[in-house]
Amino acid sequence: MANVRLSAIKKSFGKTDVLHGISLEVASGEFVSLLGASGCGKTTLLRIVAGLESVTAGSVEIEGVEVTRLPPEKRDIAMMFQSYALLPHLDVAENVRFPLRMRGIGGREEQAEKVKAALETVQLEHFADRRPRQLSGGQQQRVALARAIVSRPKVLLLDEPLSNLDARLREDMQVELIEIHQRLGLTTIFVTHDQEEALSLSDRVVLLNAGKIEQEGTPAEIYSQPATGFASNFIGSANLLPADIVAGDAGPMAKFSDGQTLQLGPDERVRGPVSIALRQEDLSLSATGDGPKAKVRTRVFLGARNRYVLSLAGEPLRALTANDVEFSNGQSVTLSIDPQRVRVLPR
Ligand SMILES: Nc1ncnc2c1ncn2[C@@H]1O[C@H](COP(=O)(O)OP(=O)(O)OP(=O)(O)O)[C@@H](O)[C@H]1O
């Protein structure tokens, strides 16, 4: 059963249309990410689910009940933001108890038990008496998470909750979020502009572009079968090269503007002017061999790997290689790629 159902949601601020008719179902217990560039409308959509923003058209249902016009406190949801907004004068336990008090859930004893359980979930049970300023950024974030889950809401809404954390802490919190989600099974909608975060955390990724759903699917589907040039570009930094499809001895080939060709899989059906999407991690480079040639423009040292920026038919092309593969600027290198890994997108 769908836990959250959004039907044809439209939202305008004055004359600016921000959401253009979004329909989306989130199943009970599912972890769905809304992924998209800044300004595409992710936060607005989340705030509409929360009841913090009205809709211009469309409806919101939670567990089969229409809540479109209900205020936030009448919806069984909890939301956690990038700025975690803990109350500085209250200790950790009181901060976590706050939503229970506001909603009048349970007596003192029951509330204390729920607070203890929530703090245990985020492994902060020994910090109950501290004030927020006595905690690190990551710990404060976990208090905010405990506060969001303490009432076991039907739906947990997370708006870029990890973006204030440094890289290491962020990775730890991602793992923690996955584990908490597995343990509690809360229906979760997670907003992020970080594709890696969306792919690693979610059951399903919804890619938004300018107020519309561009593509939705499992992380593997979104990553390996981007349906549009936008999806391909946004996810996994693919290279997009204009080409035509021509017939070759071993099946269809992509022909670039300089006449060079690249073998495609035998089942490739798209014809006409296309964009060829090549993931930088799928490309192999060698000094000799058959295959299209590209010129090395520059090398970026990334520690364990090198990124080469190349030029093919006048287009920039990026390739990730092991760090023991070395070419010099201006050198001509041969590209190879598994034909099955080449995506052909209509142009
Ligand atoms: N209250 C408001 N009044 C007018 N315009 C708004 C309001 N809230 C959002 N917008 C506009 O709506 C568009 C979408 O904003 P939104 O915050 O939903 O985007 P986002 O995808 O979450 O971006 P970010 O990742 O930067 O937070 C933006 O162009 C923004 O300027």
Automatic annotation (TrEMBL):
Keyword Acyltransferase: no
Domain (ABC transporter): residue spans on this chain: 4-235
Protein family (similarity comment): Belongs to the ABC transporter superfamily.
Keywords for the protein's UniProt record, in alphabetical order: ATP-binding, Nucleotide-binding, Transport
Organism, scientific name: Devosia algicola
GO molecular function: ATP binding
InterPro entries for this protein: AAA+_ATPase, ABC_SmlMolc_Importer, ABC_transporter-like_ATP-bd, ABC_transporter-like_CS, Mo/tungstate-bd_C_term_dom, P-loop_NTPase, Transp-assoc_OB_typ2
Top-rank lineage group of the source organism: Bacteria
PANTHER family: SPERMIDINE/PUTRESCINE IMPORT ATP-BINDING PROTEIN POTA (PTHR42781), SPERMIDINE_PUTRESCINE IMPORT ATP-BINDING PROTEIN POTA (PTHR42781:SF4)
Keyword field contains ATP-binding: yes
Classification via Gene3D superfamilies: 2.40.50.100, P-loop containing nucleotide triphosphate hydrolases
Protein name: ABC transporter ATP-binding protein
